[in-house]
Structures are given as structure tokens and as C-alpha cells.
Amino acid sequence: MGAGPEGLPDGVRDGFEGFDRLWTPHRMAYVAPATPAGDGCPFCAMEHLPPEQSLVVATGETCFTVLNLHPYNPGHLMVLPLRHVADLEDLDEAEAAELMTTTQRAIRVLREVSGPHAFNVGLNLGGVAGGSLSQHLHQHVVPRWSGDANFITVVGGTKTLPQLLSDTRELLAQAWDGAGG
To answer: Could you give the CA distance from residue 61 to residue 4 in angstroms, rounded to a whole number?
Structure first.
């Protein structure tokens, strides 16, 4: 058996030729997260990381706001309680209030920075409901623009994002203080 392209045995590489590859090394955070917190929750681990690495935009008394590592749209934020809690009904009064006021602030900041036409805001409570990290409650704030589901998304199943997450985080963090509480 001879050697094919890239040093692979003949026939081995041939089986891969029909596939396009999209390299996404940033997704390794979900495969092998560096979690200083003992429970393995990637959200809880964020408090031990610098904001530039964790993508945390702002932290309040009981909640924090972070960019989604796998955004549906540019500026896709999540608002979470600092406390590791899965169920909405388990939030105490202060956490529930701050979750909503922080969500309002996130919308104000996104309007100022990005000028979206609309928003999707919501919770996926439990894995069956679509919560991929359902062990730590998080509310999504997704900015929407007319035509944001273009042909690349529909036909190619690929989302195009015009800005690096680190740049988006910096813009939102700078605007956060000016957005009022």
C-alpha cells in the first residue's frame, strides 16, 4: 500500500475528499473546558477567568452578562445568575429581579452599539427544551436584523459573523456603564 496525500495510506484520504471542513478550534471549550470550578460548569468557571477570555461583558450583584461563544447573531448575549442554579423558580427575589433588569440593560446596550431591528429574548428550561447547558440557568438576548437569515444561512447552513467575539465584547463592555441601570 502506497502513501496518499498528506502521508495517509492510499484510499484513506479518498474517503474524506467529498467533505468540506470548517475548522472551529474555539469549540474545544465545550469539548474539554478548563473548569477551575469543581462542578464542571463552564459558566461557573468564567468567574476565574479574565473578562477577555471568558467573554463576560459585565457583572452585577447577583447576575452577569456574557457573549455566547456560539452566537446565533453578532452580539448574542446571555444573562445568568452568579449562583449555580438550573431552575427559574429556584431564583430568589433579588436574582429574579436582577435577571430581568440586566436583560433590559443588555437590550439597551445592543440597541446603542448595533442598532438591531428586533430581539429574541428567552430561556430554554431543561435539555428537552433546547437547553444545551441546562444545569446553569441562562437567558438569551439575540439581536435580530431584517434579512439576518440570508442565503448562506438557509442554503449553506452556515452563519456569517462580521466581527470577532473579543471585539464585540470590548464594544459592549465599554457601552455597558453608559446604558444606565
So the answer is: 59
Q: Give the global pTM.
A: 0.73
Could you list the active site residues? Answer: 138
Q: Is there a contact between 52 and 59 (Cβ–Cβ < 8 Å)? A: no
CATH code of the domain containing 161: 3.30.428.10
Contact call for residues 145 and 73 (beta carbons, < 8 A): yes
Print the domain residue range for 135.
26-179
| 1 within some domain | no
Separation of alpha carbons 7 and 152, rounded Å: 34
- Helix, strand, or coil here: 152? helix
170 belongs to a structural domain: yes
Number of domains present in the structure of the chain:
1
Give, for all 181 residues of the chain, the pLDDT tens digit: 454 445 555 554 444 455 556 666 655 555 554 444 446 899 999 888 998 899 999 999 999 999 998 888 899 999 999 999 999 999 999 999 999 999 999 999 999 999 999 999 999 888 787 767 888 999 999 999 987 776 556 566 777 777 788 888 899 999 998 766 5
H or E stretch at 121 = strand 118-123
Q: Examine residue 8 and state whether it is found in any structural domain, yes or no.
A: no
Residues contacting residue 27 through CB under 8 Å, at least 6 positions apart: 69, 70
Establish if 16 belongs to a structural domain: no
